[in-house]
Specification:
Belongs to the GbsR family. Keywords: DNA-binding, Transcription, Transcription regulation. InterPro entries: ArsR-like_HTH (IPR011991), HTH-GbsR_regulator (IPR052362), HTH_ArsR_DNA-bd_dom (IPR001845), MJ1563 (IPR026282), WH-like_DNA-bd_sf (IPR036388), WH_DNA-bd_sf (IPR036390). One of its GO terms (molecular function) is DNA binding. This is HTH-type transcriptional regulator. There is one protein chain. The protein is mainly alpha-helical. It has two domains: 83 residues, Winged helix-like DNA-binding domain superfamily/Winged helix DNA-binding domain (Arc Repressor Mutant, subunit A, Orthogonal Bundle), CATH 1.10.10.10; 77 residues. It has seven helices and three strands. A three-stranded antiparallel β-sheet has the order 1-3-2. A hairpin with an 8-residue loop joins strand 2 and strand 3. It starts with a helix and ends with a helix.
Length: 167
């Protein structure tokens, strides 16, 4: 397989995976392209590479910047903006996990807490509903706490030591 074919296959595959971690296909493809680019890339280069419109590129770049996994780069003498991706895969995983938690787990926890707080002593259905939603709330809350601990390990000395030991 030659470089161009391998690059396209990677970008397409990463795009398909994007929907599984909470982003759209084009956003994931832009991220893939930036991840494998050795230098920062202009919006025009992104548009040419992926055959997308300026509006589509701009909207998805803004979203990737909001996620904290793509950054703007300014080059002296250039009027255009350039973009590059987080290259540290550990840092990338932490940022994606934190963003998904904020967008998916926290709202689910809020709803589960709210619906499990009903007073349910009248019917068997109500009692069952309350029991199940309370169990779900506790489970999701534990998962959220575990994710927070995992994503915070990069910031403490013990996490850094463990990371060095397991490399």
């Amino acid at each position: 397989m030659e470089f161009t074919e391998a690059k396209q296959k990677f970008i397409q595959s990463w795009g398909a995976l994007g929907s599984q971690w909470g982003i759209n296909k084009t956003m994931a493809q832009i991220h893939a392209f930036l991840m494998i680019s050795p230098e920062s890339v202009s919006m025009e280069e992104i548009m040419d590479e992926l055959k997308i419109s300026r509006g589509n590129a701009s909207m998805n770049l803004r979203a990737l910047i909001d996620w904290g996994i793509v950054y703007k780069d300014y080059k002296q003498g250039e009027r255009r903006e350039f973009f590059y991706s987080e290259k540290d895969l550990d840092e990338l995983a932490v940022k994606i996990a934190k963003e998904r938690t904020k967008r998916e787990i926290k709202p689910a926890l809020k709803i589960l807490k709210e619906v499990s707080a009903i007073s349910a002593e009248k019917t068997q259905k109500e009692i069952h509903f309350k029991e199940q939603t309370c169990k779900l709330y506790k489970f999701v809350s534990k998962a959220d706490n575990a994710l927070e601990k995992i994503t915070e390990y990069n910031d403490n000395w013990l996490g850094k030591l463990l990371k060095k030991l397991f490399r």
